[in-house]
């Protein structure tokens, strides 16, 4: 199975005309294995053999190519999450709810929610939008309910 996933990542890099380096493949593997957005410092802590500048460049090029998108947590820290397949170079289609858990500080992309149509005043044209919500994620909500009982 790991070979299949790695092959898929290699195809993804080919699709975006990027070299297939070990560091890029590892970052993709880590990003796709998580169900939450992750920050550069979090990635640095688990990928200590990839230097900070290289990781920054990988994240930057992945964002430019539409492989990942940036979302900010409650502290204003940039986190990165995997994009939809229809995102492209410098053109993201990640208009979904970003949920910030106030307890565990994880950021979730809630892709399956129906987003309301954005009705802007005349003369305004939005290329994209971001919607944030904060509260407790299911795991923290369950823990909170258990401590009350």
TrEMBL record:
Cofactors named for this entry: Zn(2+); Mn(2+); Fe(2+)
Binding site for Zn(2+): 101, 104, 137, 140
Matching Gene3D superfamilies: 3.30.1490.190, Winged helix-like DNA-binding domain superfamily/Winged helix DNA-binding domain
Manner of cofactor binding, per the entry note: Binds 1 zinc ion per subunit.
Superkingdom, natural source: Bacteria
GO molecular function, one term: DNA-binding transcription factor activity
InterPro entries tied to this protein: FUR, Fur_C, WH-like_DNA-bd_sf, WH_DNA-bd_sf
Keyword Iron-sulfur appears in the UniProt entry: no
Gene Ontology BP terms: negative regulation of DNA-templated transcription; regulation of secondary metabolite biosynthetic process
Keywords: DNA-binding, Iron, Metal-binding, Repressor, Transcription, Transcription regulation, Zinc
Residues that, per the record, bind Fe cation: 92, 94
Family: Belongs to the Fur family.
Name of the protein in its database record: Transcriptional repressor
Source organism of this protein record: Mucilaginibacter achroorhodeus
